[in-house]
Predict the structure.
Amino acid sequence: MRYLIKNISVFDSNSEIQTNQNIYIGKGKIENLSHNEKNIDKKCQIIDGTNKLLIPVITDLYSNLKTPGEEHRSILDQEISAAIAGGITNVCCLPSTDPVLDEPSLIKDLISKANKIFPINIKPYAAITKNLAGNQLSEMKELFDAGAIGFSQAEQPIVDTKVLLSAFEYAKTFGFTLFLRPTENYLSKNTYANESSIATRLGLKGLNRNSEIIEILKYLALSKDIGTKIHLSKISCKESLEIIEKAKNENINVTCDVSINQLLFSEQDIDGYNTNYHLTPPLRSKIDQEEIFNSIKNDVIDAISSDHCPVDLDKKMLPFEESEPGASSFETFLPLIFKVAQDHQINITKLLSKISLEPYKILNNKKYDLNTCTNIDFCLYDESLSWIPSQSSMKTSGKNIPFEYELRGRVSHTFVDGKKIYEL
Amino acid sequence: MHNIQLKNGQLQHLLCIEGLSRQIIDEIFVRADSFLDLKNNNVKKTDLLNGKTICNLFFENSTRTRTTFEIAAKKLSADVINLNVSTSSQSKGESILDTINNLIAMHADMFVIRHNQSGAAHFIAKNIDQNIKVVNAGDGYHSHPTQGLLDAFTIRHYKKDFKNLKIAIIGDIKHSRVARSEINALNILGVPELRVIAPQTLMPFGVKDLGVIPFDNLDHGVKDVDVIMMLRLQKERMDSALIPSQEEYFKTYGLTSKRVELANPDCIIMHPGPMNRGVEIESSVADSNKAVILPQVSFGIAIRMAVMSLLMEKK
């Protein structure tokens, strides 16, 4: 099938929005129509692009598909459908599954199962250590060859620094990237909120911010010495961003992302013990949030991740500390990015590049070029649609959404490899 | 925080002290006074809650608090059911809400709940039939409102009013729901100088925001105070490296008769119990005529009677 999208705005490879474009998609490629309208296939499907924005290659660097492990709930089917409905065409998922993604066959199996549902680009991270236990390195080369995009310990840090050093050295040998979520093992154990006056008042066990800072300093020291490319996931503290900025100025091979949740919510939201705000890392202070916005503007933060984590309702209907952390955010990701742009006066092109072009570059070490790419992935975002995320309007298995307001804008179409795979 | 324990300014549940008005606390105190009068007149029981069923639902071990709640309920002529949940349905995998809803189906009118998770009582109150009342008997590090109230009631009994008092709370402030409830209650009641005394490892983050003056030196902290409120030191604090030993703790933060001399000569000494003699308090201090530790227990029954009868009357 070929498509003609008329009168569309396009977020292009130079992070600029071009308005009033006519886009013809033939053989998986995009062609701007201004000069060669004669070559259009007359049978092509025409899509009205009025009020729509074409956003290429939305790439999510941190999500939890809970597969393998919860097949009995058909969870993969629902989460892949949710990603597509959110316009996310590149989904990087964590290895903290059951069993842990530490065997090449598990990586191949996950990719194959996902592709049977939809031809989406599933990019699993394999575990850095066997069973995420932090003792023995996993077979990184084999896992990479099986389709792992990089290596991660999810939320479980490597405690043994000697093993960590080996992981850095081994990854460097093959040019692999380590995707690390900085959290210190002992400080983070049994904590449920940002350590602050609010946590004190609510009696919740707080996470000391040094948990994140100490781990970052450790990773940066190793990266500086060994040269391993590292990506730091879900940064949440002001001090962490200051350290990362300094590291980047010293040309340490580091990039980082922040969770969409940290942009939208703060620790004040946990007042009232709403378990939908039980997240990892915990929601931080307004001061941290302000620094996150600054760091997006000055590019210390390279990417924004959805931090999608579907949680069964029963696991949220518990006292705060007993509830399972996480929020469902595939489907609300893009509208919330627009909300952040509006609420905090951040240029939308800056934010869009941090969910598409920048994370793509982190994964692939090259720029995404919409005009020359032969397997184009993109979504159409309709800014005129308003909707309220609810159990019935969402495809994800987890109904754990930490807000109840109306969202303006929604993904109307998703294309992978030039083929339309989703239409609202 | 949306205060779900209040509806149109009226108390629906007692979940924490935070958000209560001075008027509500005074109402509880006046009611507790009347129950003390009953005792003084040798009246053992009233029939205020005759026919009502109160479930003491303790997800965490407790002897003293559960017993005083039970006595208070029985003095009000309520039927009392004690459930030690850690040994029953929870161990069979039943969810906390299912346990509660089953008891509601058995016509429970009120739950007295103790749980090791902060916010557990809020969670239950938010998710059950709004005609059923919830009294928090301690949730994690968060709140133990009846203890906070009975401690304030004890101070009121001995000091008459709160206007010119200097009060010091000594011990593991960080992990203490009792301390948080005492601080909240005494702030609402207008105590002008509230001090907390502990080593930094037992002091919660941002403690000043609770409305207290922190001290890490006991001698400085107790100087000229009118009330000393001790907290129990739990043994697991040593295991988690928060203090080196009981001996060193007693040496630096134990209340000795010598240290009591630094306080106002007519100061009173309180402790929520159970006490660790020789760890946080010297025996001679605990047994001195300044100690009001046993009257606290008796006042606890009056306060719990007041809270339960107030909640049920509003039903």
User: Anything to note?
Assistant: The domain at 6-144+297-313 of chain B is CATH 3.40.50.1370 (Rossmann fold).
